[in-house]
Amino acid sequence: MADSNNETHSSSGMPGYRRLRNEVLRGRLLTIRESVTPILASNLLRSFTDHSVLHSDRLCDLIDELTASMGDHALNDTEAFILYAAAYLHDMGMQHERCDETQASPRRRRRSCPANVDGG
Known about the structure:
Helix content is 48%, strand content 0%. The protein is mostly helical. The chain has one domain (9-112).
């Protein structure tokens, strides 16, 4: 599955980021990973499953697996960087100290309600 230069997270301890060839973007991605690690480790929502950096690493491995057969439609480096970075950043909002008190605003709820039952 993985070649010797880009092993998957399961065998090397780090994701392979196989779709990211640009070394500058790879370095930036590693900086993002390093920066979010202590924040994601706080796990403020104890009722949730693991949302540490290891969860994000697994998502990066899934990105590699899901994009492996894209052939001529392969991701370019910018697209790959954005997708991998999203894997690390997508749970950041859940790590706010008052995250369990957060609710959607009434305006936001109205827009997302398909029936728009409140008339707004």
